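Quick one, probably user error.
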């Protein structure tokens, strides 16, 4: 495996642990906590699939023909993913939490990256996950890492959007009509 795989996985893991410690909603500070275990499901999918994908890559099942090129593409995708994810987190500021929760000070964010997609931090997250899968240099690893993680992420987005509709009603519904969920022009 390429050294960038380990570097990306370590940076990703460390950054997400920091987010888990620092950006959780506080009990009683949120007027709507609706996580529905989506954070747990997402992290089980991410950690389990990356571990399984890594094992598949180590034993060499179904490798990419030009592994070096694929790993270099993965590194580029990781950099873009980290930039998108952290820009989205910084743009939300205090409103960003790792669990689905809406505080009494929460405002609907529709500017910056949120003008392009409704969930830019998840777009960045998915790009980072895809980059880790690509850096494993195995087609089967990519399938094992990306598909289950994407399914868990879609569940999480649905949970979050229900909470946002409850909180912001027609304003959020109008926002969904003009802004893509995750990928501009596609989804």
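Nope, works fine. Designed sequence:
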């Amino acid at each position: 495996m390429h050294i960038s795989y380990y570097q990306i996985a370590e940076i990703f893991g460390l950054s997400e642990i920091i987010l888990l410690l620092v950006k959780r909603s506080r009990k009683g500070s949120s007027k709507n906590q609706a996580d529905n275990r989506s954070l747990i499901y997402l992290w089980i999918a991410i950690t389990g699939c990356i571990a399984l994908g890594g094992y598949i890559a180590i034993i060499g099942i179904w490798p990419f023909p030009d592994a070096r090129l694929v790993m270099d593409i993965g590194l580029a995708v990781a950099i873009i993913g980290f930039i998108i994810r952290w820009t989205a987190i910084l743009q939300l500021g205090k409103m960003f939490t790792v669990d689905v929760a809406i505080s009494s000070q929460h405002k609907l964010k529709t500017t910056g990256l949120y003008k392009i997609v409704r969930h830019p931090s998840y777009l960045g997250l998915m790009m980072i996950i895809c980059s880790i899968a690509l850096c494993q240099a195995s087609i089967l690893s990519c399938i094992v890492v990306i598909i289950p993680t994407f399914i868990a992420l879609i569940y999480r987005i649905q949970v979050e959007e229900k909470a946002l509709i409850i909180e912001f009603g027609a304003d959020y519904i109008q926002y969904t009509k003009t802004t893509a969920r995750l990928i501009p022009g596609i989804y």
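Residues 3 and 173 are 44 Å apart (CA to CA).
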